[in-house]
From TrEMBL, chains A, B:
Pfam family, one: tRNA-synt_2b
Catalytically driven reaction(s): tRNA(Gly) + glycine + ATP = glycyl-tRNA(Gly) + AMP + diphosphate; 2 ATP + H(+) = P(1),P(4)-bis(5'-adenosyl) tetraphosphate + diphosphate
Keyword annotations of the record: Aminoacyl-tRNA synthetase, ATP-binding, Cytoplasm, Ligase, Nucleotide-binding, Protein biosynthesis, Transferase
Protein name: Glycine--tRNA ligase
Enzyme type, top EC level: ligase
Location(s), subcellular: Cytoplasm
């Protein structure tokens, strides 16, 4: 259990204690990031909401306003007992911790706390009146598929679960999101960008903990060998039983209890549920194995011999850590600095569903911000301190309270958010998400509770976005402390440290094992280099232990890597001396914002899905111009050759400003063609009509969201659409510059 | 053997024959693309040149001018016998083909032809006087490593051959190259961009031919199991022996012969060399196995059961082919259209060396241009027809002639280049390469000879760039005909065709197997769908064959996918009728330009590597501003706090225009800091000096290539550097706008 986290829970109203003095050593293990960080609400709300078709469309604004106004007296009255039930356990946990109660007691209480939280959250969402919350997922997914935003990979071969191809629309939108990300983070924050290998040798991922711990529990059909993710299997079974009229009430209650607590279950817990309820393979009815850990990395081998094991990277972060030394050098040895990477990650999910939300191959954007562990302030924090975020703190969650709006300055001052750097990134993440089109009313930061935290993390806030699948974790902002650098230092024997000049020099006692290089070289030959490196790395205590052994038994054993050698008396001399040091070495801490591009894209698409007032069939995406896959359409009012010279002039104007366009000169009414371009989220439409031919040539420009139009010269159209697309100019500004065009009709 | 190619060779001086009538069916197999397409010169020149340190630096211009002027009488005199020797075999092959000689005879002659070509090319390069061709590869590689353009992946763990990480400089440069690629191709040519999965099921790559044929020959140490690429092993052995004074002259001659012909060797050829010269493992001296085929794809498995085999894609192209149907629909059913993809490819090379030139993981940019096989004209060809390219045609190669400069219009008119679309792309490729900084004097297009062509290709031109490793193939422009779409149609059962309206409707005789759906469904249940689909796909001949069987024996067997069913008499009825059809279906041809970004980047870096006149230590990269990783530096003349407000104003001006910069306010002379920024290819340097403080604030702007400076207002600096960086404005234009600044000294 991470004592740092508990420290915060216990003292979350005491703001004056310096948090940096708390030891970060005992990092709590948890299977892996993405899996853990899902809010409890997400998992079992998704199925419920899918059926009910919750949220969005017609009254999109109202739902989020509604959630904000939940504190209205009537609703609060209904929620009060549930809030109290959560708080009861929050208080219990605090007192258990104060009394230093056994870890198992605390863990059990946490599981119960989370179950109560889940009940509260479900009730909150259920209180949304049915008529304000309708989202037609079928129509939404249909439109995405039809217009090839994205779809299952290798569909003509039956498709592969968890793999998606982005078609022209999805690909362009993704490229725009990534470009904006690069500007917003790498350029504006002067980060170093790197691009590292996907293929990763086993040794690297052994050091990072992924080989041993990056896994999910699965059960196997004992006859066919078919595999199921254990928690999903139990969930599906329990849901089905709860719906079944024939299930006795007491069993239903028991299974509801299981559903509430499932997220906290380990293998033994799950096995006992499977045994107790006699759960069989849902496909064959055969017996199932006990839960077994299944590593989620894709294995492969490098080279022809077959014995160089490797994996596809499960995150891009490791590529940055192993390059730390070069990057620090590149930054002229100075801290802090941030390194970013955009690239693919791979996770061999046992049975992925949920489209872009759970993929086996996905695009990540990750930042590793290296910082002095004793000084996590940020030079630009002052500039953002008044920025408001919706924070769902660990305390709020334990007390059964709602998320609260708060300035980041206050949150850091009150130690709710661990440090300025974490806080600064939370603001930057928020700005980015809103800029690309996430509805700020459906965006919150939720702090991880202790048993959700990944094995390397000591504080973590997730940017969660509310979609029809519930709250989805889309960005994690974690303080990974120095976990990774320390692990790679140990495993590789390479020092991954920064240096800090001391305010005044200090005298240190050095105890050093000076090797007899000739003797060691003679015996160990090629191995000698590694042995010497290891000797150099030994701490004073370790050297003294070696010395003791040599004195007592005449030789000692030295471990390096996976190997061991025997060193004789004449192989080393122990030297003691005083040294004046002016600088000290330390492992930097890492603050890591990590973005799942697919999930964010899904959320943006859902938040932009619209229907024209009064016309159920006219569905479209109201995308921000800056992320829209194509910036404008070119539509001649009729398929007439006489328009070709004007269209050519328009195309060349657009090309001059690198504006992407789609020309639709097919037959069909203008209104129908508008509808077609609206459906792929094209924000601006250029129409050539009969008035266009009068010198100087003009065209009309239509904004898809409002359907308003202006008229402007062909020679102005490139720059205007470019400025509108990059959002240097707003539509309102364009309307002030150019005369309005009253269209005859939009159909 | 590809009859199309031979057709061209036989008739390469006859220009009036319509090439489209030649059947494309019998596509010749060749192991795989990148491997084959290396020019023969590349392979064995690389070692020679590495040692001699050929090409570049001081007199970079002269070497290419030199190569161009090789036709000078003295040199031509020396080359004449070698050219004649090549031509002799070129003529021989033509006459063999005319006489319909056995394929083995032709193949043998081709091997000899290539050996003679290689001898000629080596002589050509050797004739470059030593003093004009010096390229210091060590210094070049050192600078790249030191400034972290790129370096071995996982270096702290010892590194992995064939895997490289791009550091901040390399990554930014790569991103710029790709952005430009996207503008130059996707945007300007209105292509559809897609982004498909790397993980690819075995069935897909089985259909594409990669599972069976994408391999290299390797030999194993019979005791240790260590593997060597057979051709590399022989090459290294032969080279070593040839250098050895003790090797008898006749053996040397024999081995030189082997080196010349090695590229054309199959497994038996290589085995006989190994046996004859008693070649052993170079590491242990143990016996070696016979050459065995090693598939170059990285294998993995998807999902937990371990029986869903998959590979990492060896090229991005397949992702486009399997999405053909959706893409055609997206394009409203119209041909031609082009689809592009930018992404990673993976090849498990047996023993990669050569840095970025042979990688196990690499970035590709590929375009698949789908076109009617009977009309490969291009609407924009007219615009480029006068563009000159250096073409090294198959005929030139067979005749021992030099590459020749020719307009693409003439080349297509003379049928040297197969069609307008191929020619149009060659021009676009050339423009792109020159735009990003490839020296046009070291760039040529070489046509593939028949036995180099990949198994799917019917005509191919490589853009080859001359570097210190010889001519490197960086872009392949291939006509893949309809190979891939046909293969995937067959394997998936999905029709991957386009439709063409006939000029007049025609009457066709239909013979159809009408299934008894109820009966088939009852017996075959879930399988029924596939059976019905297969029945629908049968040709008239196949239906008649089934019918015959049913009549004679009462039942028939139908194969679908890997399975087979028995159909009884009452399962199908054969129906015959006439049908008037207005359109016909066909498999489109594909023209594919395929870019290896790593190789191109390497070439650009080599072509930009410079040394300051008179100062051997001042090495730098003269990169085009548009690809430069960082656009400008900010250098205060001294580390003085009073400059901070001006620097802040400069930074904010730059940010306004999204210009990347690097600030260097470390101590050290200005000259030294300039040198540091020059070394990472920063084209523009902004200096704040004591004059800067006079209102309105000004700065100096320095261009790294010429070291000239101008002085301009801080308020102008953002727009100016942005325009210079995007090459909207040239340095000369900037000099005309702003006053010259005479610096005191650059050191």
């Amino acid at each position: 259990m991470n004592s740092f986290f508990w420290f915060r829970l216990l003292h979350c109203h005491e703001t004056l204690i310096d948090r940096n003095i708390v030891p970060l050593a005992r990092l709590f293990y948890n299977s892996h990031r993405y899996k853990q960080v899902e809010s409890s609400s997400e998992k079992d709300l998704s199925y419920r909401l899918k059926r009910k078709g919750h949220f969005g469309k017609k009254n999109r604004e109202r739902i989020s306003t509604y959630l904000y106004n939940m504190a209205s007296p009537e609703i609060e009255k209904e929620l009060a007992p549930l809030r109290a039930a959560v708080k009861e356990y929050g208080d219990l946990i605090r007192s258990l911790k104060e009394k230093d109660a056994p870890k198992t007691d605390v863990d059990r209480a946490v599981v119960e706390l989370k179950a109560r939280k889940k009940k509260l959250e479900e009730r909150e969402l259920a209180l949304v009146p049915k008529n304000v919350s309708f989202f037609d997922r079928l129509k939404f997914e249909d439109l995405l598929k039809q217009r090839f935003f994205y779809d299952k990979s290798f569909a003509i071969y039956g498709g592969v679960a968890g793999l998606y191809d982005f078609g022209p629309m999805g690909c362009a939108m993704k490229a725009n999101m990534i470009n904006l990300w690069r500007n917003h983070f790498i350029l504006e924050e002067n980060m170093l960008e790197v691009d590292c290998s996907v293929l990763t040798p086993e040794a690297v991922l052994k050091a990072s903990g992924h080989v041993d711990r990056f896994s999910d529990w699965m059960v196997k059909d004992l006859k066919t060998g078919e595999c199921f993710r254990a928690d999903h299997l139990i969930k599906n079974f329990a849901e089905k039983m709860c719906k079944d009229m024939k299930t006795p009430a007491n069993v239903k209650d028991e299974l509801k209890e299981v559903l509430m607590k499932l997220e906290g279950f380990n293998d033994a817990d799950m096995h006992s549920v499977i045994v107790k309820h006699n759960i069989k393979s849902p496909i064959t009815g055969n017996e199932l194995s006990e839960p077994i850990a299944f590593n989620l990395m894709f294995p492969t081998v490098i080279g022809p011999t077959g014995d160089f094991k490797a994996y596809l990277r499960p995150e891009t972060a490791q590529g940055i850590f192993v390059n730390f030394k070069r990057l620090l050098e590149f930054n002229q040895g100075k801290l802090p600095f941030a390194v970013a990477q955009i690239g693919s990650g791979f996770r061999n999910e046992i049975s992925p569903r949920q489209g872009l939300i759970r993929l086996r191959e996905f695009t990540m954007c990750e930042i590793e911000h290296f910082v002095d562990p004793n000084n996590k302030s940020h030079p630009k924090f002052e500039l953002v301190k008044d920025y408001n975020l919706v924070l769902f703190t660990g305390c709020n969650q334990m007390d059964g309270m709602q998320a609260q709006t708060m300035s980041i300055g206050d949150a850091v001052a009150q130690k709710l958010v661990a440090n300025e750097t974490l806080g600064y990134y939370m603001v930057r993440v928020h700005k980015y998400l809103v800029r690309i089109g996430v509805d700020p009313q459906r965006l919150r930061f939720r702090q991880h509770m202790a048993n959700e935290m990944a094995h390397y993390s000591c504080d973590c806030w997730d940017a969660e976005i509310l979609t029809s699948c519930g709250w989805i974790e889309c960005v994690g902002v974690a303080d990974r402390a120095c976990y990774d650098l320390v692990q790679h230092s140990k495993a590789s024997g390479e020092k991954l440290v920064a240096e800090k000049v001391l305010s005044e020099p200090k005298i240190v006692q050095v105890v050093e094992a000076v090797p007899n290089k000739a003797a060691i070289g003679k015996i160990y030959k090629a191995e000698a280099k590694q042995i010497l490196a290891k000797l150099e790395q030994l701490s004073a205590e370790e050297v003294e232990a070696l010395e003791k052994q040599i004195i007592s038994v005449g030789s000692t054993r030295l471990q390096y890597g996976n190997k061991e050698v025997e060193l004789q008396k004449d192989h080393i001399t122990v030297k003691r001396y005083e040294k004046k040091v002016y600088a000290e070495e330390f492992h930097p801490s890492v603050i890591e914002p990590s973005f799942g591009i697919g999930r964010i894209m899904y959320s943006v698409l859902e938040h932009s899905f619209r229907q024209r007032e009064g016309d159920e069939q006219r569905l479209y995406f109201a995308l921000r111009p800056i992320v829209a896959p194509i910036k404008c359409s070119i539509l001649p009012i009729s398929a007439n050759l006489r328009f070709e010279p004007i269209m050519a002039a328009v195309r060349s104007e657009l090309a001059k400003f690198s504006v992407s366009y789609r020309q639709d000169d097919s037959s069909g009414s203008l209104g129908r063609r508008y509808a077609r371009t609206d459906a792929i989220g094209i924000p601006f439409g250029i129409t050539i009509d009969f008035e266009s031919e009068a010198e100087p040539w003009t065209v009309t420009l239509r904004y898809s969201i409002t359907m308003e139009q202006i008229r402007l010269k062909v020679s102005d159209v490139g720059k205007t659409v470019a400025d509108l697309s990059s959002e240097i100019m707003s539509w309102t500004e364009a309307q002030q510059t150019y005369p309005k065009f009253e269209q005859k009709s939009d159909s």
